[in-house]
Write a sequence for this structure.
């Protein structure tokens, strides 16, 4: 970024003072990251992050976050389409419901899931009848992660759909294209960048999911103890090892975001 | 702009919904509570106490305030290791009450206490089951039966260390479905009916009232957890801090703790 004479940032004509609060905001992210780095025991970093429990947590985190991102796409794309294009009554109320997991503390979300899908929850007896018990399983982790990540995908995709507008869809429809064809050939390609960034956000949120998982799924190595839960547990006995694992979590998240966003140049 | 208005409307609706649902009699999940002072407080005492002491220390704090007019006792309740770490980082605490000797040792090792810690209570494990004990758990060995979903604390936290000690002493090896980070997480899985049994402290079972059925077991005496309390070196009011320590370990404190199920040190 170069600064032009006259106090404006080149290319965007931003007033220069904007940079100050922006820099302060950036520091709010960067300084805690330095805080983590300052605590990482570098000499033991490799053995710490490659211990059995760490690798089990990392593998579980990647598996569950991927599964919940896939679920988010499968469920979230239709939801965003309905919100942005559906013209259904009560869209505002629907949108509020989608926002719910964002404002609920994750622990509350976890309790809500427990009271719904748990053994003695609303649907528990019915699920037990067909032999399904989600409590303490990896499936419960995926459900908790999907619960907290879904709004990110729906909201960013809905935003992309509203920004893109529906002119092309209308034209295609007047030319005789059926709704299914319009959706696949026009709408989805049009908002693909929004979809990708929404999916990345959802993945990142799923990777960091903690409260709902702890409350709803429990914590057992290789089954439900994801990386954030492992960090939380390690911190009881060895805060420095927890710092090392936190760094691993940050690195994984950054790698995923850069790999997907960098290549697609979205947002 | 239109999108932003919509988002704002959406948020407003959500907040309204949440507020409407908030009156369900759920206790406030507040980590810190300060009993209202009856008179204008002149002196404030900040007590960092283990989460398992929340009920008893709130009562003891009220009694201490009654006995010391003009004193306002404030509490921060959290896991002992969190509190020990906060004190190590310079948190403004006057008194520290730990749920185990290990976390108190972290504080004394940094010479942050004023004088030696005083042991004021003990706690032992008990089996908590959902009301009525549907899985029919009658002994510690029953927890190892196939098909029994048992939840314990992870070995890294005090209740998990106690569980491990009991396992070794009794020769019974458990295969828990979850190893939780805190005793409250274990209790939560039991009260939700998700687990058949959980290993928690006697005081947790008593504190949970009708939400759980307790099953005491003799092997619990093999792992007795001792609670120490100490005034801290950087206390803003050293004499008040040491008075509180004496009060907790004294007759009135002992009575409150005993009623909650804590043993004598």
């Amino acid at each position: 970024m170069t600064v032009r004479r006259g106090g404006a940032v080149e290319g965007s004509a931003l007033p220069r003072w904007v940079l100050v609060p922006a820099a302060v905001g950036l520091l709010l992210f960067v300084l805690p990251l330095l805080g983590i780095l300052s605590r990482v025991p570098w000499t033991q970093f490799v053995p710490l992050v490659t211990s059995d429990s760490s690798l089990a947590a990392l593998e579980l985190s990647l598996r569950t976050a991927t599964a919940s991102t896939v679920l988010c796409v499968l469920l979230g794309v239709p939801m965003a389409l309905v919100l942005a294009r559906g013209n259904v009554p009560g869209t505002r109320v629907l949108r509020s419901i989608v926002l719910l997991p964002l404002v609920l503390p994750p622990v509350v979300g976890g309790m809500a899931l427990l009271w719904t899908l748990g053994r003695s929850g609303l649907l528990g007896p019915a699920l037990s009848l067909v032999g399904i018990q989600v409590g303490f399983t990896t499936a419960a982790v995926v459900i908790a992660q999907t619960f907290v990540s879904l709004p990110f995908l729906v909201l960013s995709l809905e935003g992309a759909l509203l920004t893109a507008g529906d002119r092309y869809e209308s034209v295609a429809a007047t030319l005789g294209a059926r709704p299914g064809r319009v959706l696949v050939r026009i709408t989805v390609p049009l908002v693909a960048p929004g979809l990708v960034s929404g999916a990345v956000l959802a993945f990142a949120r799923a990777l960091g999911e903690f409260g709902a998982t702890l409350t709803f799924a429990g914590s057992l190595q290789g089954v439900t103890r994801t990386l954030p839960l492992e960090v939380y547990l390690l911190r009881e006995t060895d805060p420095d090892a927890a710092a090392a694992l936190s760094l691993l979590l940050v690195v994984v998240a950054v790698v995923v975001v850069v790999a997907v966003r960098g290549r697609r140049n979205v947002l | 702009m239109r999108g932003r208005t919509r988002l704002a409307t959406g948020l407003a609706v959500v907040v309204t919904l949440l507020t409407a649902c908030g009156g369900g009699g759920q206790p406030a999940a507040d980590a810190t509570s300060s009993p209202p002072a009856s008179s204008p407080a002149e002196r404030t005492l900040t007590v960092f106490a283990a989460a398992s002491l929340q009920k008893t220390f709130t009562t003891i704090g009220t009694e201490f305030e009654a006995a010391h007019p003009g004193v306002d006792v404030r509490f921060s309740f959290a896991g002992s290791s969190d509190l020990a770490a906060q004190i190590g980082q310079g948190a403004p605490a006057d008194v520290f009450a730990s749920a185990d000797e290990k976390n108190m040792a972290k504080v004394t090792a940094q010479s942050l206490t004023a004088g030696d810690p005083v042991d004021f209570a003990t706690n032992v494990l008990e089996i908590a089951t959902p009301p009525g004990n549907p899985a029919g758990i009658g002994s510690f060995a029953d927890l190892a039966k196939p098909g029994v979903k048992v939840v314990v604390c992870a070995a890294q936290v005090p209740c998990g260390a106690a569980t491990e000690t009991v396992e070794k002493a009794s020769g019974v090896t458990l295969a828990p479905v979850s190893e939780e980070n805190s005793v409250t997480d274990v209790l939560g899985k039991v009260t939700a009916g998700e687990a058949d049994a959980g290993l928690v402290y006697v005081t947790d079972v008593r504190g949970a009232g009708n939400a759980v059925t307790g099953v005491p077991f003799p092997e619990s005496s093999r792992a007795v957890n001792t609670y120490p309390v100490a005034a801290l070196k950087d206390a803003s009011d050293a004499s008040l801090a040491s008075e509180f320590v004496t009060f907790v370990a004294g007759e009135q404190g002992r009575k409150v703790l005993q009623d909650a199920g804590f043993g004598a040190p």
In short: The first helix of chain A runs from residue 19 to 39. Chain A touches chain B through 38 residues (CB under 8 Å). The CA atoms of residues 106 and 212 of chain A lie 5 Å apart.
